[in-house]
Amino acid sequence: MPTDEAKKSILHTLLQSKDFKDSPLYKNLLSYLVESTLSNNIPKEITIAIEVFGKDSSFNSNKDSTVRYHIHMLRKKLDDYYENESKGDEIRLFIPKGHYEIKFISSKIQELQKSNQVISFLKRWEIVTILLLLFLNFYLIYRQIYLNHISSVLHAPNFVDPKDKIWSSFFENGYPVSIILGDDFLLDEYCPEFKRYRIIQDWEINSENDLSNFLIQYPNANLWKSEITGIPFGGINNLMDILPIVYQFQNNVSLYMSSMLSLEEIRNHNIIYIGELKNLRILNKIIYKTPIRYQYLPDERLYIIGEDGDTLNTFLRIEAPYEQKNKYNVDYSLLIKIPGFSNENLMFILGFGYGGRIERTKMLGNSELRARFVEEVQKINTNFPEYFLVLFEVKSIERTGFTNEIKYFKEIFQDFFD
């Protein structure tokens, strides 16, 4: 066990790191917790609220989550520090959940604790039940797809010729396929009225940064980032359209959420992204090499930009009020196919809402609709290129699209990433 002087030295080194040196709030909070621990005077939540965050004696932790939120973020900063900047430290600072005492523990012991936490987590019957239900659900989907494939593949509308204009390159390169769902950012909320916690989605909070800014503006909000994320609305329908196609040319298929993806994981993989523009996350780095830009607030707009950065065209999404029946919507969806670094194929099926996205996967999964799409492109471009970017305007009532009009087309060339 390190001496108090050694602990102070560890703290000093940590506060000079890039994770803390430009963050006075977290430097102050961590220093306060370490000093309290060394003096054997472990603070309560209300004490931290008053002495660190300047709250008064009327502070109510049931209505104000300031302390819990910042302690949560402090734990993340410590994890990032030991994961990236100081992997070799033998002694690490650790804040146990539900406590405000700093622990100085061996890195080996901490790794063992993490393993035990994972084991304990998996033993919870609620999680096991959920996992079993998910497994059963995906097994039934896969079984149904497989049986349909065996019984009528040659006559099914989703049968794909190996020379198909859209899918042929997926047949040819032999790479495994990663289907990436743009998962939604979910929140845990404590509701005083119901006296219980709920999982909610706020359309204006889609990242930890959004949440942090929201809590600065509304410090009494009882919100935290949820440990789970949400499958995009209509995502199962999208998978049912795409999976029968994919399994015709590749059995090695993986499913990812965009919130858990790194760019390295898409190398030597054909990828198919399905989801909203706002949930692209790391994949934005690829989309921003195209002429597409977008915004969600104060309204939802999609922009086409020229090579000089000027806006060439703007498309405004029209969405009916939530409470309106028989909603009339005008959505914009994109189908983008891009060459990768090593002959991979990168396909993006995306837009603002689910209406346009459902129309795109329905088109990709149906041979007649694909043929009609190819004909329309050939009228615009004389030939159908291997790689392309297409913007569709989709007018719909509720979830049923009744028009699909190409509003923009651009051929993408093999040197896209050069």
Structural description of this entry:
The chain has a seven-stranded mixed sheet. The model is unreliable at 112-116 (pLDDT under 50). The chain has 418 residues and is α+β, with helices and mostly antiparallel strands. The chain is 38% helix and 22% strand. The longest helix has 28 residues, at 125-152. It has twelve helices and 15 strands. The radius of gyration is 26 Å and the shape is elongated. The chain folds into three domains: 4-122, no CATH class; 157-178 and 233-411, no CATH class; 187-225, no CATH class.
Per-chain topology:
Elements: H1 4-15, H2 24-38, H3 45-51, H4 66-85, E1 91-94, E2 103-106, H5 107-123, H6 125-152, H7 168-173, E3 177-181, E4 187-191, E5 196-200, H8 208-217, E6 223-225, H9 235-249, E7 253-257, E8 270-276, H10 284-287, E9 292-295, E10 301-305, E11 311-316, E12 328-339, E13 345-351, H11 354-364, H12 367-381, E14 388-397, E15 400-411
Parallel strand pairs: 3-7, 3-8, 8-13
Antiparallel strand pairs: 1-2, 4-5, 4-6, 9-10, 10-11, 12-13, 12-14, 14-15
Helix pairs in contact: 1-2, 9-11
Tags for this entry?
single chain, 418 residues, alpha+beta, 3 domains, seven-stranded mixed beta sheet, three-stranded antiparallel beta sheet, 15 strands, 38% helix
Could you write a compact summary of the structure shown?
The chain has 418 residues and is an alpha+beta fold. The protein has 12 helices and 15 strands.
Please state the structural category.
alpha+beta
Helix content: 25-40%
Specify the overall morphology.
Answer: elongated
Largest sheet: 7 strands, mixed
Largest beta sheet: strand ordering: 7-3-8-13-12-14-15
SS strand fraction: 15-25%
Instruction: Give the tally of β-strands.
Output: 15
Q: How widely separated are the two ends?
A: 54 Å
Rg, rounded, reads 26 Å
Low-confidence stretches at least 5 residues in length (pLDDT < 50)?
112-116
As for the number of domains, it is: 3
Instruction: Give the overall pLDDT as a whole number.
Output: 84
What is the helix tally? 12
Question: Element order, helices and strands?
Answer: HHHHEEHHHEEEHEHEEHEEEEEHHEE
